[in-house]
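### Sample
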Amino acid sequence: MGHRVGSAPLLLLLLLAFCKGRIVRVPKSPLIRVEGTETVIPCNVTDYDGPSEQNFDWEFSRGTGFVRIVSTWDSLFTSQQYQKRVGSGEIVLRRSSNNAVELLIRSIQPFDQGEYKCITPSTDATVQGNYDATVQVKVIADGLTVSGSKARSSKPRQLSEGDSFELRCSASTTSSEHTHLQVTWELKNGPAWQEILSLTHEGKFQPSPEYEERYLSGDVRLDTVANDIYRLSVSQALPMDEGLYRCLVSEWVKDADSSWQKIQEKNVEVASVVIQQTVLDVLIATSNMSVTERDSLDLTCNITTDRSGIFQAQVTWYFSESPDDTLSDAQVLLSVDRDSVVSDSPLISLSHVDRNSYHLLMRDVGVEDSGYYFCQAAVWVPQHNGSWHKVVEKTSSPVSVVVTALELDYQIVLNASKTPKFSDDPTELECRIMNAQNTEANLRFTVSWYYRMRLRSDAVVTDELLATMDADWTLLVGDKSRERTQNGEIIFSKQAVDTFSLRIQWTSEADRGDYYCVVSAWSWHHNNSWVKSKDVTSMSVSVFWATQDYTLTVEAVKLKPFFVAGHTFEMTCKVSSQNIKTPRYSVLITAEKPLMDQSNPHGTTRIISLNQDSVVRLEDWTDQTRVDGVVLEKVQENEFRYRMYQTQMSDAGLYRCVVTAWSPGGGGMWREAVNGLSNPIQIDFQTSGPVFNVSVHSDNPTVYQGELADLLCIVTIDGVALEPDDMSFDVSWFAVHSFVLDRAPVLLASLDRKGIVTQARRNWSSDVSLERISPMEFRLRVHGSEDQDFGNHYCIVTPWVRSATGVWQRQPEVKSKPIFISVKMDVLNALKYPLLIGIGLATIIGLLSCLIGYCSSRWCCKKEVQETRRERRRLMSMEMD
């Protein structure tokens, strides 16, 4: 029982939501309006049936019967006493939307006080809700008076920018109702009135967005004097304050719904204000001038203004390299504020000669001080609250100043104190400053060393920087000499104030050429920095000695002229050299394979090397089964022997010795002298062995998703027949996932000759397997095929054949032609689950619709029509017909 009682209100609310009817609304009573003002009474209807556009009738009553005023659909609805006012437009019924209208009385009078009824003719199938609503209107006398403190003068008030002024207006009301006044000051200096500051009917001060900042700072205020006087105070006049001022007063009353309603508004023009802007001229007394370096620069800024009374000036000096630079781009030199406080600077002074002159003095000027100088002045006036206001600001025209540099004179002499006669001898160069004139204490010299290669032709060679010093004597090394400088092979030093040296500990042939130095003079300037003033370049000094060209001859000899696969290949390399002092040799063995060899498509392979210290290293030898199959050894000082054990068919090619001669360099290091290449030794196996062929086959190259795809790799032999035990195969399967072979192949799986299967990593759910089903057939299976498994598939086979001596020989790789595998989609299985889900959802929604319809017909009852339906047109009585 408790559950039934609790559910009854909820069910009732649901029934009311389904069964609500028409609602006609007007404002709450009473509506208080002032005599002679425009009055608007709105009316709207909601929750109705029928057409969207509804009709309205308005009627009026003073306590007896209702009199018809106006209708939206019947032009004959208006009673006789209202026909004149409706016809003249004094009373208008205007539609604001399809379901809302407004009754407008342009000038309401005391006899319009009474009750107004809004009626909507029925367009509903059943009678539900209300079809009319009434509102009481009360008309009160006009008791609002507004005036200026004095009659508006025809002569404008003349003010200077920054002055203060006040404006007053008087506003009062004798209304019988409890009303509030709102006072707003407005300014007109254009086509429209602009709001300044308001005292609202709720007693709040409300500035306009344009005056909000000035209101918060106290520059614009609104206060009351006595009871009815409202004063606008402006403490600092700006050019924007010029124009005509008026006082706008509105009267507000609180309606029955507790909302404030403006019932009337009046205004009075108070005064016209003219703001005279302050005139300011800023001029630098000196025209364009020239100053010698280390002298003083003297400039004067003169300001004139028409401002009288108390004011202070602020002056700032600027420097710019271009006359077109803005203040933000220019450099501030010095400034004096309105309190005559000068900013600090050690070499620049600013003095206030008199009220209108400001003197700038710069001592010890430099070339970098050449440019454009200008000053900026601003006039400040005091305010009532003790603060200062800037009324005008102006910048002078720039003055060009050229600082002439002192001509510093000195000469540079470069000598070679030590010159090499042979390779690895030391070299020492001295760069000396001579006959320096016009030097001073704040001056220092730095050096830069350069190298130029000597060529026999007329080719242009770029000078290379070896090292340079900056103004702090920090050494910066060039790319050519960085490593040798770090190793101590090249030494840069300053031996005296006027002498710089360059020493190469062990001079090589690559160091032969021309050397010169560049000495730079640096001056210390008042901005606490070093500035380069001059560069002087010396004559070049040649470092060169006569040498004979190195020669190197390498001869390769094949020790065994005839051999077969599986035997040992052996060759020697004999080296002879000339003009190389105590040489040592490093040897590299290379092989040039045939172009048909797919394991080395580039042709040349580096096999093994032995350096000048007899350290052996395997280079590109990748046969893991024969890691110890190659040997390179030093037989004599100029003879080397190379052996390759158990040669394979794939070892065929041309073999050479690449020899490099090394000579002792400085610091115990070896220096490369010359390279040599031997004659080729050929390995060529003459055989008439079997020829292997590979093909790919599939019984069903087209499969559906999820099915199994079978592919066979079949090996056949032409020529000499072999026993199955004398041959084995490495098999690899590849796929190109495209219709044409325009992408890189992807490894699927591989099976080596020992039967070990390796599968590549896959990014989808299908799987592959690879197995040997006969001595010459290998099967690849793709389990659970997907769209990504389509494409061209092929296999690569590497045959291995056992020779008569029992050695396994690797044969060239054989590649099959590709076969295309296509994967199709099973449409029935793909659509099965979406169809089942759709049918289930449709069934549930149908049952829910039937349940809602049953409940609505059970609980929502309708009432029969109790009165005659009123149509849009008047119908003629049948008796008259």
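DSSP finds five helices and 61 strands in the chain. This sample (Prostaglandin F2 receptor inhibitor) is used throughout the tutorial notebook.
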